[in-house]
Amino acid sequence: MPGPWHSLTPHSHDSSDKTDSALESSNRGLRVIGLSFAILTVTAVIQAVIVAFSGSVALLGDTLHNFADALTSVPLAVAFWLGRRAATSRYTYGYGRAEDLAGIVIVVLIALTAFLAGYQAIYRLINPQELSALAWVAAAGLVGFLGNEWVARYRIKVGKEIGSAALVADGLHARTDGFTSLAVLLSALGAFLGFPIADPIVGLAITAAILFVLRDAAREIYHRLMDAVDPTLVDQARTVLAATPGVRKVGSVRLRWIGHTLHAEVDILVPHTLSLVDAHAIAVDAEHRLTHEMPRLRAVTVHPDPDGPEGVDHHARLP
């Protein structure tokens, strides 16, 4: 039903479909996290083997960094798992917001990565260190960069497809880790060419790149926390509602992301001469059209208002 009671007892034809779709998105997110965790772990293991051959302390630090970063998949996996739980009388919208909390953790980790990369670059600029076993160092940097960049592209792609800002942010986090490994590769190349100063200079450049990634990730999570949506989604919803037979005007349209699903609250104006049953039918039709036209829209509350007669304010406070 489109009124207040409708949000409690939605029609079964869209309720089960949307729930199944949301669960599939969560399952897909968990698969991405599991596979990327495995790739990052293998990458770190390969680097650890190279560390054993080269004896490089710098590579040891980068390897431990990559192991730690692989573990950052844990809070996001917990968030997706929580998001699958049904709503309760306390958490009436479910647990989708856990993704936003995980996103905050990821943004903090990216900021920490930028700080450590900058600190290390400045330290090496003040205290130059000679690199040894350059071939092994370069190989470790290349492995770290390729592994993290593949994970970054995978997470960002799927995160955008299922509407998960936290998964996109985690993909950006993996990209920053790839940058730090790339710094190792470029530093080894600079030392090989006779420019040891290239090590801290490249480190500073990588720090700047990480700060740009941090800006994008923080903005993405901030928008979710503030219930921001793409204005084109609002325009799409208005177009669908306006095309619904019986809808004379479209009032307010409010959309919000909860995890990786959209929720909507909309007002429509229908002829004031209609019976309650007929107005209800129009509202139900509007809801169905919205849920079919907007794939990630999981729940809709439609409020019909009477349009007319002229000069009557139906929302005026009664004496």
Summarize it.
With 319 residues, the chain is mainly alpha-helical. Helix content is 66%, strand content 10%.
Written account of the structure:
- The chain has 319 residues and is mostly helical.
- It is 66% helix and 10% strand.
- The chain has helices at 12-54, 57-70, 73-83, 98-126, 134-162, 165-192, 198-225, 231-242, 276-293; strands spanning 249-258, 261-271, 297-307.
- Helix 9 (276-293) links the parallel strand 2 (261-271) and strand 3.
- Helix 5 (134-162) packs antiparallel against helix 6 (165-192).
- The protein is elongated, with a radius of gyration of 26 Å.
- The relative contact order is 0.14.
- One of its GO terms (molecular function) is ferrous iron transmembrane transporter activity.
